[in-house]
Amino acid sequence: MKVSVGLRKSGVAMLAYRAGAPLADMEFVQFHPTTLKGTGILITEGARGEGGYLLNTLGERFMKVYAPQQMELATRSTVSLAIGQEILEGRGVDGCVLLDLRHLGRQRILERLPQIRALAMEFAGLDPIETPIPVRPGAHYQMGGVRTNQWTETGIPGLYAAGECACVSVHGANRLGGNSLLETIVFGRRAGIRAGEYVRTVAPQALRNDQLTIEQTRVQRLRAQEGSVRAWQLREELGQTMSLNLGLVRTQESMSAALSAISALTQRAASLTVQDKGQVFNTDLVQALELECLLDVAETIVTSALARQESRGAHYRSDYPVRNDRQWLKHSLIRRTPGGTALTHEPVTVTRFPPA
């Protein structure tokens, strides 16, 4: 279940990937088209659903070029790519485009979009009744995750995954807005049912001493190390690397650069320093543990994306801009092995709705 980006990614890595369970379709990272400038706060699609316009610096509703029929209500990937292209070609407004609600009128905004107005006023210092909101795409949702079946079972007996950390593949390569809550409700219930059935069939098992010793040693090593490398610094560098090279548009060159950077960060992370040596509520230690997992997950995303030589859903490559069902209508599966990441693929099961 989604708690926060850091915690969810850590759960994927530590509970499943590091234990040997495969992850699926990690290359499909969805960008929300409209996040508030400088904050990453989501400006809900409801603003466009109510009739909001997206404008560039020339005052043009540029979506007529990219999706003339759907306009601002096109899919998230389409709108995000369009916004990115407008900014790239110099028609942005200080690295953003403008979400204009003014034509909706004061009464409709107050009645239908009060939260949007409150967010804009508090975090951007502007009133959307009078001034357009500066927005840009931001990383939002992971279609990939721990590979599960329809009953949330993973490749490890007794380990169940549901919600955004899992990949049962109900969202394919590009989730539709609002469906993640429904997924969590449906598969969260299934996980509880199946886990309850499972515990009735197995005897309680104590944690093996060697497992406990390994984790104790790892934590003690982190707390004992001295140096200048801090988790928050590497985490910031990792975020910049992924934003720059694994954003809306990807290429062989950009992703190869990201993989090299992640490798270098992983080596530096081996000498992390945890300044807080305490054993109670040690958030410094938590950050260090999270960073190790974030590096693992970042590597799975880049490795899977590099291999997929096409554009599909939330994965867009300018060097392979066309969807290729003949070669790439398949899932990416990635495992952690003693020799590093191991990537394989498996066919997609098409049921009621074949790809359009």
Notes on the structure:
It is a single chain. By secondary structure, this protein is of the alpha+beta class. Among the domains are: 108 residues, Succinate dehydrogenase/fumarate reductase flavoprotein, catalytic domain (Flavocytochrome C3, Chain A, domain 1, Alpha-Beta Complex); 126 residues, Methane Monooxygenase Hydroxylase, Chain G, domain 1, CATH 1.20.58.100. The chain is 42% helix and 13% strand. The chain is built from 12 helices and 9 strands. The strands form 2 sheets. The chain has a 5-stranded mixed β-sheet with strand order 7-6-1-8-9. A 4-stranded antiparallel β-sheet has the order 2-5-4-3, with helices on one face. Helix 9 packs parallel to helix 11. The longest helix has 25 residues. It is globular and about 65 Å long. The N terminus is likely disordered.
Helix-strand pattern = HEEHEHHEHHEEEHHHHHHEE
So, the CATH homologous superfamily of the domain at 209-334?
Fumarate reductase/succinate dehydrogenase flavoprotein-like, C-terminal domain
How many β-strands, per DSSP?
9
Main sheet strand line-up: 7-6-1-8-9
Uncertain stretches of 5 or more adjacent residues = 1-7
- Helix/strand structural class: alpha+beta
Strand content: 5-15%
DSSP helix fraction = 40-55%
In DSSP terms, counting alpha (H) and pi (I) runs of 4 or more, how many helices? 12
Question: Architecture of the domain at 209-334, CATH level 2?
Answer: Up-down Bundle
Distance between the termini: 30 Å
